[in-house]
Amino acid sequence: MTDTSSNDTRAGGDPRPRQGETLGEMGGIVDLGMPAPGGAFDDHNPPDSALIGDCVHCGFCLPTCPTYALWGEEMDSPRGRIYLMKQGLEGEPMTDSMVEHWDACLGCMACVTACPSGVQYDTLIEQTRNQVERHHERSAGEKALRGLIFALFPHPRRLRLMRGPLRAMQATGLDRALRRTGLLERMSPQLAAMESLAPRLGRPEPLPPYIDAIGQRRAVVGLLTGCVQGAFFPGVNSATARVLRAEGMDVVVPQAQGCCGALSAHNGREEEAQDYARRLVDAFDVARVDYVVVNAAGCGSTMKEYAALLADDPAYAERARSFADKVRDVSEILDELGPVAPRHPLEMSVAYHDACHLSHAQGVRAQPRRLLEAIPGLELKEIAEAELCCGSAGIYNIINPEPARELGDRKAANIVATGAQVLVTANPGCLMQVTSAIERSGHPMGMAHTIEVLDASIQGAGAGVFAPTPAAR
Question: Repeat: is it a keyword of this entry (predicted)?
Answer without folding.
Answer: yes
